[in-house]
Write a structure and sequence with these properties.
Elements: E1 11-16, H1 24-35, E2 41-46, H2 53-65, E3 69-74, H3 78-85, E4 91-92, H4 94-99, E5 104-108, E6 111-115, H5 118-127, H6 134-138, E7 142-145, H7 149-158, E8 170-175, H8 178-188, E9 196-201, H9 205-213, E10 220-223, E11 247-250, H10 258-264, H11 267-270, E12 273-275, H12 278-293, H13 298-311
Parallel strand pairs: 1-2, 1-3, 4-6, 7-8, 7-10, 8-9, 10-11, 11-12
Antiparallel strand pairs: 3-5, 5-6
Helix pairs in contact: 1-13, 2-3, 5-7, 5-12, 12-13
Length: about 300
């Protein structure tokens, strides 16, 4: 018998680690009102990272079979949940299949759907702060710290053929465990011949410091490890040295954010542009809410939803 109780009103779930401390718990009711989602509520489902497959399967099976459980957003567990539950879905979108992850669970026309929205939401967030023609003009490196779902999604976004020559020539993915690096290499192989991918095993923050020190000026450095939100700390040490004139992105917007503070300590000296994860948070959530509740005109409402989130 399932440990989950049947929903009594349209319910979207948030599958994460510490969902109760997320801003979405305050934001969602206001978004629901603005979008006319009558009686819709959000509920957290917390799992430790890399939980047993049967735990993910039980949660997904409950959502699939409960009439008023309309879908879910998945963070942290995107790859593990996909690997554990892919046979439970009746539709898997091309991004989810390519990346081997699921960030959005929804129901439509009798189908139980898995989507990977991160290539879209991370792209919208990057477009917010990366200048036009940045890679073609400056040819900086990209260092993605972590080899999870966010890194895979950014890699797919940054190397799209539609960008022509405006793609990074060098993307470095650094991770503290080897299996995720090997999986990333398999997934990202042959994305774009104009981009060279390097996969570096860096077990410690000091190892990441060395990789960071090798980057060109005008690079992009991203904390996609989960450190700072799902676990305390930073993938770098306080002795790290950022490359001159670079873009630094902390994709978390809550937690201890040590990575961002390390960059801020060098902001003036190195002329860094530093972004937190707020835009990523807003786009990540609005993309999934639109999928789960079948909102067709999200583009027209995104500014209003962003303002609501900030005020909340």
């Amino acid at each position: 018998m399932s440990k989950y109780k049947a929903a009594t009103q349209p319910t979207m779930y948030f599958i994460g680690v510490t969902t109760g401390s997320s801003s979405i718990m305050n934001v969602f009711p206001k978004w629901a009102k603005a979008l006319g989602l009558e009686n819709a509520v959000i509920k957290g489902m917390d799992f430790p990272p890399h939980s047993p497959a049967e735990d993910y399967r039980e949660a997904v099976e409950f959502i699939k079979n409960d009439p008023l459980s309309v879908g879910a957003l998945v963070t942290t567990h995107k790859i593990d949940l996909y690997n554990s539950c892919k046979d439970q879905f009746t539709y898997i979108d091309p991004y989810a299949e390519q990346l081997g992850e699921v960030s959005s669970i929804s129901k439509k026309d009798g189908l139980f759907c898995a989507h990977a929205k991160d290539p879209i939401s991370s792209g919208l967030a990057l477009e917010n702060f990366v200048p036009d023609n940045y890679w073609e003009n400056f040819d900086g490196d990209v260092l993605l710290l972590g080899a999870g779902g966010s890194t895979l999604a950014m890699s797919v976004y940054l190397t799209q053929e539609k960008f022509g020559n405006n793609v990074p020539s060098n993307i470095i993915i650094a991770n503290r465990s080897i299996p995720r690096l090997e999986s990333a290499k398999e997934i990202l192989n042959d994305l774009n011949p104009k981009t060279r991918f390097s996969y570096i095993h860096n077990p410690t923050p000091a190892d990441n410091d060395k990789t960071l020190s090798s980057l060109k000026p005008r690079s992009l450095i991203v904390n996609a490890t989960g450190l700072g939100k799902d676990a305390p700390g930073s993938p770098l040490t306080d002795d790290c040295v950022f490359p001159q004139d670079s873009l630094v992105w902390e994709i978390n917007y809550r937690g201890d954010l040590i990575f961002m503070y390390q960059a801020q300590a060098q902001e003036k000296e190195k002329n860094l542009h530093i972004e937190d994860g707020w835009e990523y948070f807003v786009h990540g959530w609005t993309q999934v809410v639109a999928e789960v509740f079948h909102v067709d005109d999200l583009d027209k409402k995104i500014d209003e939803l962003s303002d609501i989130a900030k005020s909340a």
